[in-house]
Each structure stands twice: as C-alpha cells, then as structure tokens.
Amino acid sequence: MRSWERALCVLEALRERGQAAGHGWALDTGILPPHQQQVNALESHGLVELAGREDHAELSVLEGRPVRWAARLTPYGHDTLTYGQSRAEPPPGEAAPDRQAGGADPVAGGGLTGVCRPHQPAPGAAG
User: CA-CA 20 to 30 A from 72: which of 29, 79, 81, 110?
Assistant: First the structure.
C-alpha cells in the first residue's frame, strides 16, 4: 500500500470514528496506539487536529472516563479525504493495480476492499 493510500485510510478511520462518537473526535479507544502515531504525523500536514488540554477535559466529561488521546479531521483533511477517495476508485470490474482484495488495513488489521475500517474493540474490552 502506498503512503498516500495509508494516509487516506487513517483519515477515513478518523472520520468514521468521529461520526460514530457524535462529537467529531476519534478517541483513544477507537484507534490503535501504533496508528495514533500515523495520525500524529498527519497533524504536521494540517490534515488532523489533535485535542488540546481543554478538549481533553470536555471529552473526558462527555465520555465519563479519562480521554488520553483524541483527534479529528480539519476542513483540509475532509477535503483531502473526499478528493483522494474520488481519485482512488478503480473503474467498475477492475482492481487497482497495487491493491489486492482482502489486503491488510493499516488502521485495524482487517480486510481492505477499497474502504478502510477503523479498529473496533472487542465487546467488554477497554481501549
């Protein structure tokens, strides 16, 4: 997987986790720690905003637990994801030349069939 495809997967995971949470932030329980480092790298490109001290406090109150890490897409990150997804779609019936169905998802370790899936903890597991 190329680095831009990996970045798109990370951005997509952040968007999905933020939407699922209802407040727009992907939290420490939704993204595996090794992949949080990938998110941190995207911050330097202006694609991602990491939660500051006040955001951590607000999110901790909303979640009812300490939130150690949180990130969300910036408007530029949303635009990049939208553009990247429109450019990454192969014609119907064709697979992208370097993308194999069932390949590893860099965010969650699951299958990749054109859409990356974020990590979802096992039922009852703490992030």
Answer: 110
pLDDT, tens digit, 9 for 90 and up, residues 5-58? 888 999 999 999 999 998 999 999 888 888 888 999 999 999 999 999 999 999
List phi, psi (to 5°) of 87: -85, -25
Query: C-alpha angle with apex 100: 72 to 11, nearest 5 degrees?
Result: 5
d(CA 42, CA 40): 5
pTM: 0.67
| Phi-psi label, residue 102: left if phi above 0, alpha if psi -120 to 50, beta otherwise | left
Cα within 13 Å of Cα(113), Cβ side: 3
Q: Comparing 120 with 43, which gets the higher pLDDT?
A: 43
63 close to 27: Cβ distance less than 8 angstroms: yes
For 10, the token pair is 């990370």
